[in-house]
Specification:
The protein is of the alpha/beta class. The protein has 11 helices and 7 strands. The N and C termini lie far apart (84 Å).
């Protein structure tokens, strides 16, 4: 039987991928896909690999979930013998072709290609037309906590701000500053100011002549950083500022109304 031949495989013999790259599968999207399959049928078969007498989804996880939601007993699939390395590479190619990947999902894909696919960051960069630095940035994100990755996914913190704040080597202080960054949507320039202040304070820790650790922990206190308000141009503490998306015409209208007040 050809590896590309489509077969009908029983749903109850299929398992989801052991590691799902798409961390958040929107149930509403699965329902929409299920309705499409109900009306038009499955347009593209999923790919499976044999696994201990059963089958594991290589790609097509959402199509598989949609079939389960519809209560269907079988699904069209191509079955291929694949080892872990081959599976990781195929999944990586499939996942990276999607246009709605979150940064965390892209990061997890690169990490799987490295750990399961055995590819070096340089090989991953070459294979997918990315720079080596870009791959390193996403691999760094993949190793962060879920809380950090979700903040990046929600665009509350950029990768450049995250990387700057990671120069803070005290976990407690990093969490504090990262929380501040996520709440206020700071720029990389502001993050650099915070980190520089932290490092200056840290370098002032007292050490004894024998080089022993500090007698008392020096608490890092965040100095206020002021930015100009886009509406009134007054100074505001970055911790109290909020990021608002506004077009230039509306911004000028607000500014003009304030200028006109007596």
């Amino acid at each position: 039987m050809s590896e590309d031949q489509i077969q009908l495989i029983q749903i109850d013999l299929i398992d989801r991928p052991k590691r799902v790259a798409r961390e958040t599968i929107d149930p509403e999207k699965v329902r929409e896909l299920a309705e499409s399959i109900r009306e038009q049928g499955l347009q593209e078969a999923i790919k499976l690999r044999p696994s201990n007498g059963r089958f594991e989804v290589v790609f097509g996880d959402r199509r598989f979930l949609a079939h389960k939601l519809l209560g269907l007993k079988e699904i069209k699939a191509v079955v291929q013998e694949l080892d872990d390395q081959q599976t990781a590479i195929i999944r990586g190619i499939e996942n990276l072709q999607r246009v709605d990947l979150t940064p965390s999902e892209e990061a997890t894909t690169y990490l799987d290609l490295k750990e399961q696919g055995g590819l070096s960051p340089h090989a991953i960069a070459k294979k997918f037309g990315k720079s080596h630095a870009t791959i390193d940035r996403y691999l760094n994100l993949a190793r962060c906590t879920e809380e950090v990755r979700k903040a990046v996914d929600r665009k509350e913190v950029s990768l450049s701000v995250l990387e700057t704040l990671q120069e803070i080597d005290d976990p407690e202080q990093f969490n504090y500053f990262f929380g501040m960054a996520a709440a206020n949507g700071i720029t990389e320039r502001v993050a650099r100011m915070w980190v520089d202040d932290y490092l200056k304070t840290k370098s002032g820790n007292y050490y004894s002549d024998e080089g022993s650790p500090p007698i008392a922990k020096v608490e890092v206190v965040s100095k206020p950083t002021f930015v100009a308000c886009d509406c009134c141009s007054g100074a505001v503490d970055i911790r109290q500022a909020r990021q608002v998306v506004v077009c230039l015409d509306c911004l000028n209208a607000v500014r003009g109304s304030r200028v006109g007040k007596v």
